[in-house]
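[Q] Does anyone have a clean structure-token version of this?
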Amino acid sequence: QVQLEESGGGLVLAGGSLRLSCVGSGRGFSSKTMGWYRQPPGRQRELVAAISGDGSTNYADSVKGRFSISRDNAKNTVYLQMNSLKPEDTAVYYCNARVMTGFANWYDYWGQGTQVTVSS
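[A] Here you go.
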């Protein structure tokens, strides 16, 4: 069982910055692929960034060069640093932990979400 708790959301002006944090419970945090997803109003949830256990990262094209994902395994925490925020970044941001259950099978755990609102 994995529990995730996000923090750091809020209201910010366009061009500003926020840092989201996600603390995970349970064993084996360092080996899990962790990700940040977001769900804008009226739209589907989408991947923002992910970081694997070995530290490799991938980003949505829309946030490349502006957002950075990192992890501190000693603190069971993953971060999302968001710079140069735009109104279109407004969404509920969710922390995700992916646990592999087989060669090509996995189970996703989710946090409760944190609201990020960017005003123009």
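[Q] Thanks! Anything notable?
[A] The mean pLDDT is 95.
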